[in-house]
Amino acid sequence: MKLAAFIATTALTATTAFADGHVDRTGWPESFTVGTASQGGTYFAYGSGWANLVAEELGLTGGGEVTGGPMQNMALVHTGDAQFGMTTMGPAAESIAGTNPIAPGLQMTNACAMFPMYQTPFSVTALASSGIESIADIPDGARIGFGPAGSTSDTYFPRMMDELGVNYERRNGGWSDLGGQLQDGLLDVIAFAAGVPVPAVSQLEVQTDVNIIEFTEEEQAQIMAAFPVSEFDIAADTYTTLESDARSVSMWNFAIANCDLPASFVNAVVDVVMSDNERMVNIHRAARSTLPENWTKNAGVLPWHPGAAQWFVENAGADIPADQIHGN
To answer: Cα separation of 72 and 33, whole Å?
Structure first.
């Protein structure tokens, strides 16, 4: 059953109407923040980009904020310390179930789905000089950088390495910092879970020769059987290093909103982001997947914000069950 059967709000028109003030802005904040992740990662580039776009289009003050990534963003948005954030479906499901390590036992049900972002591929990078060209080549006790503590990478990639029988020393840090450590020989491998191209990897390619390591078919199948991920190929044109598509796995990302934000505000934000994909792709190439039809990738994990659900019902033909919309 569609949202329209349950709520009646003023229909929102084109984005220009928002800027012109033709929409009821009752309850709208004067400023907003978007919880992203560490600098050098895709979340920060993508999130800061859409935050700036929304602020400009809606005549508000807003921007991206450096955070610990998807787990922390769920907590910040749930409590209202950030109006918006970005998360991955695995950490989102854990947070709603009350198993987020930031606040064990707290079911973070006040963070609502806003719009689909892109898939996060899991990929491994090493210096070409290391001789590491496959997962099997990773030496016993390798120093692996898994990203910021509590990030999607840090939550799932160590488990994946365990599943594949890799023995390692676990290191954490921001992506830019870990890229520098890899280049300086302080790390053997970086295990990235981030939208591609990952800024830190692109920067490494400019400065040195790297190997972007794909999973074998057997490794891919083994990981897909053990974790909430799907098959994914990193396109050859993503990095100058790649000569062909690289076999990977991925997890979907969604933008989230505090569920108590006004429906008209969230609807306006979603319209700015979803109505012109070219602008989003100019912010980050990962936004090629930021398309209305990908509303289905939520798959009942997160409750929908009413304002977001209304946008997808009216503009993408979404058939969102009433029990998956917050407040119903």
So the answer is: 14
Per-residue pLDDT of the chain (328 residues; tens, 9 = 90+): 334 333 333 333 344 445 555 588 999 999 999 999 988 889 999 999 999 999 999 999 999 999 999 999 999 999 999 999 999 999 999 999 999 989 999 999 999 999 999 998 999 999 999 999 999 999 999 999 999 887 889 989 999 999 999 999 999 998 889 999 999 999 999 998 888 898 889 999 999 999 999 999 999 999 998 888 889 999 999 999 999 999 999 999 999 999 999 999 999 999 999 999 999 999 999 999 999 999 999 988 999 999 999 999 999 999 999 999 999 8
Output the pTM of the full model: 0.79
Residue 114 CA to residue 295 CA, distance in Å, equals 9
Ranges for all domains in the chain classified under CATH 3.40.190.10 = 3-118+252-324, 120-250
Looking at 3.10.180.10, 3.30.70.270, 3.40.190.10, 3.40.50.970, the CATH number of the domain 120-250 comes to 3.40.190.10
What ranges make up the beta strands (E) of 36-184? Answer: 61-65, 84-88, 111-127, 142-145, 168-171
